[in-house]
Design brief:
The complex is a heterodimer of chains A (110) and B (114). With 110 residues, chain A is mostly beta strands. Chain A is built from no helices and 11 strands. Chain A is globular. Chain B is mainly beta and 114 residues long. Chain B has no helices and 11 strands. In chain B, strand 5 and strand 6 form a beta hairpin. Classes of the chains: A mainly beta (110), B mainly beta (114). The interface between A and B is medium-sized, with 21 and 22 residues.
Amino acid sequence: GESVGLHLPTLSVQEGDNSIINCAYSNSASDYFIWYKQESGKGPQFIIDIRSNMDKRQGQRVTVLLNKTVKHLSLQIAATQPGDSAVYFCAERDGNQFYFGTGTSLTVIP
Amino acid sequence: DAGITQSPRYKITETGRQVTLMCHQTWSHSYMFWYRQDLGHGLRLIYYSAAADITDKGEVPDGYVVSRSKTENFPLTLESATRSQTSVYFCASKDRGMRDTEAFFGQGTRLTVV
């Protein structure tokens, strides 16, 4: 089966600092990746995506980096805010199937 | 209210009982999905449906049954609940032509099987 995992289960950052959340994937055939944010008691929300033919994609305060050589995906959040506190997880797509990572819990310290 | 809603939000049931989790969306989206979310596993697809009366198995379908008699509803039934089915269940929907990233998730149902 697929294996999508996160290096760190928890991350604490000071408000205003940058956050980096990492994700390792195992399927080199995966062609599309998504980062989700999930707040406590809520369903996942899309943050940003990237196709396998790209190395980097930027959104508002977020950047996703893809390193296909080492099958690694990262999410960078600039100027982290208290509202960014949540669980973040990645997903990879292989064909019609998505496989989801286990999540990293981000806590922003005011 | 417009959106995707799951009911109940919380459910405790006994081993061996049948339980149905409801999912309702108001957009008439073609696709609907059921996932379970467990610590250490991330979201896993149980079943999905591309349209009314069309359903397909996902990654972990065993022990679950779905139906899609109406476009807006996609109930998930555990025919004989087991403790291993204790989980948080999420329903999602998206329409044809929508990107996967545009799928909307419900708020989840926390099911405990005792």
